[in-house]
């Protein structure tokens, strides 16, 4: 072998090309380890560890009564082995031709792709186990316990599996002293006392139920096989969910906290049946179904997002952990200002400490369950009246308990004039007049024929239907109602306001006009007798603004020039607003 690449290839070679042909049929063995197909040739002489040096690199072949493991440069290949004749063994996957001669095994490479190694013989010598010429002692291990013993070994010699009920296995061994090791019910144990075999001696070690053994992983733990060789009753809880589980208990046994992401915790428990209790995001839950743990077994239970659980405080509430294990999304509004706030709303949820007054009084706080989202808090200031909102949006994350505090210094914006901003305690309303058509009809200076609030299902306030054919009137802009002016060629709505200074008038307007040549009609809008706009066609909702001066202002919307005294078509208004600009 000249380089690392050759060594790597040699490992593959040993797995596929060390000899000529594979073993087509497995060889049967009796309980004594004898070949029933080949003249009772014992495989014992092959059992042990065989080594060779290949160009300075160690090769190790370990053979048991039925298996082998070969290692070269840290790479390992396991397989089965069977004897073919007195001095020949077949390593399944390697082929025939592994010959025993003078305490050594020889194999021949038969693979042209191996270049210089093709046809080369490799000789392995026994190390650490007895071979021909070194069988001067024998050890018999007899199992009279109530459990099956597996992986039985003494001083590197494998005795395989020894079934319960008085069965035994005898092996040639080298003289020496060592512990007898084995597994019972999958538990690694060793006989607590050492076994000494003298030169030329044949001895028998009998394993009974009361044989004192030690835990191989913690030799301070000792006891009779009948207790040490019996598995514990355990429960393993695995958390494959999206949340950490805290205060996990089952039938009084605490599993502590089990973090999300596949972590698990195993505890010794008493056999029985019970619910698994835990907390997720601080919410006390339990499994919907009980978990049964059998004696002397490990029971595993996995919590997943879809695992059905029950609210421990209200067992009528059930569902998958992915929904039950999520805390409520809440918004707490605290009023630490000196003012009473009414009609407090965030994203459609109302907050009130006084339900009868729909208000949060000074010093009070209200918590409401909400959907996660982002929005302004809208409210009305009771003293020095103001309709306003917070200047910044309030964001509430899913599962969060959000808190918002109103103080006198909280920045707010007037709803009806968003150019007017300031602090909650200091902002003065600039609004002179506002009509959103949602309450009672405002006290206008004059209303002349067919004027009132409407929606598409009820008549005008004067009792006359605005829906003389629904096509004659525009759908309401928003909310429940809008204002209608029309139905005749003399309809008029007159608003008069006295202003202490310059102001702004804003409103939404829509127009319906007859398409009949016999009934043309126009809509005229004027301020102080001066026509500002005339709408001569049908028009969808449009936003209009106009400047007003100090003093008395007469604002008029009217239908004119209709051919008939009644033509049934309407002008619509909404959100009529007047506010000071200085």
Model description:
With 582 residues, the chain is mainly beta. Helices cover 4% and strands 52% of the residues. The chain contains 3 helices and 53 strands. The strands form 12 sheets. Strands 1-2-3-4-5-6-7-8 form an 8-stranded antiparallel barrel. A hairpin with a 4-residue loop joins strand 37 and strand 38 (386-390). It starts with a helix and ends with a strand.
How much helix is in the residues? Answer: under 10%
Total E-strand runs: 53
Quaternary organisation: single chain
Distance between the termini: 98 Å
SS strand fraction: over 45%
The shape, in one word, is elongated
Largest sheet: number of strands, sense, barrel closure: 8 strands, antiparallel, barrel
Structural class computed from helices and strand pairing: mainly beta
Number of helices: 3
């Amino acid at each position: 072998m000249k380089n690392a690449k050759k060594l790597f290839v040699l490992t593959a070679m040993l797995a596929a090309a060390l000899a000529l042909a594979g073993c087509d049929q497995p060889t049967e063995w009796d309980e004594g380890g004898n070949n029933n197909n080949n003249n009772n040739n014992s495989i014992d002489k092959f059992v042990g560890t065989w080594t060779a040096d290949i160009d300075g690199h160690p090769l190790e072949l370990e053979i048991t009564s039925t298996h082998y493991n070969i290692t070269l440069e840290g790479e390992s290949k396991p397989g089965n082995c069977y004897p073919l004749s007195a001095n020949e063994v077949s390593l399944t996957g390697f082929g025939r031709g592994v010959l025993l001669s003078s305490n050594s095994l020889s194999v021949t490479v038969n693979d042209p792709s191996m270049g210089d190694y093709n046809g080369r013989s490799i000789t392995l010598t026994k190390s650490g186990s007895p071979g021909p010429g070194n069988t001067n002692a024998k050890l018999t291990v007899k199992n009279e316990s109530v459990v099956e013993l597996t992986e039985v070994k003494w001083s590197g010699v494998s005795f395989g599996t020894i079934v319960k009920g008085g069965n035994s296995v005898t092996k040639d061994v080298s003289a020496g002293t060592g512990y007898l090791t084995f597994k019972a019910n999958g538990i690694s144990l060793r006989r607590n006392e050492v076994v000494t075999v003298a030169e030329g001696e044949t001895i028998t070690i009998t394993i009974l139920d009361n044989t004192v053994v030690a835990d191989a992983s913690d030799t301070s733990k000792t006891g009779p096989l009948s207790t040490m060789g019996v598995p514990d009753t355990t429960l393993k809880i695995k958390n494959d969910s999206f949340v950490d589980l805290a205060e996990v208990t089952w039938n009084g046994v605490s599993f502590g906290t089990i973090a999300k992401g596949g972590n698990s915790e195993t505890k010794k428990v008493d056999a029985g049946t019970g619910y698994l209790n835990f907390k997720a995001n601080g919410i006390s839950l339990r499994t919907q179904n009980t978990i049964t743990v059998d004696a002397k077994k490990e029971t595993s239970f996995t919590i997943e997002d879809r695992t059905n659980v029950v609210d421990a405080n209200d067992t009528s509430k059930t569902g998958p952990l992915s929904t039950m294990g999520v805390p409520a999304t809440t918004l707490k509004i605290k009023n630490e200002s000196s003012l009473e706030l009414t009609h407090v709303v965030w994203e459609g949820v109302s907050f009130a400490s006084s339900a009868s007054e729909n208000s949060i009084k000074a010093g009070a706080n209200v918590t409401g369950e909400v959907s996660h989202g982002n929005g302004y808090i809208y409210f009305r200031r009771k003293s020095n009246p103001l309709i306003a909102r917070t200047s910044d949006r309030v964001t509430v994350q899913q599962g969060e308990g959000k808190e918002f505090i109103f103080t006198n210094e909280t920045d707010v914006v007037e709803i009806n004039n968003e150019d007017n901003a300031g602090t909650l305690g200091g902002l003065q309303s600039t609004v002179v007049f506002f009509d959103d058509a949602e309450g009672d009809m405002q006290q206008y200076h004059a209303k002349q024929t067919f004027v009132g609030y409407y929606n598409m299902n009820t008549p005008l306030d004067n009792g006359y239907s605005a829906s003389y054919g629904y096509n004659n009137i525009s759908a309401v802009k928003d909310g429940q109602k809008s204002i209608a002016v029309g139905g005749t060629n003399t309809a008029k709505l007159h608003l008069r306001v006295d202003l202490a200074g310059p102001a702004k008038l804003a409103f939404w307007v829509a127009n319906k006009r007859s398409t009949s040549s016999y009934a043309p009609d126009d809509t005229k809008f004027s301020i102080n007798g001066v026509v500002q706009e005339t709408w001569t066609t049908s028009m969808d909702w449009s936003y209009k603004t106009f400047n007003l001066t100090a003093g008395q202002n007469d604002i008029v919307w009217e239908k004119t020039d209709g051919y008939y005294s009644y033509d049934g078509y309407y002008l619509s208004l909404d959100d009529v607003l007047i506010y000071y600009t200085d």
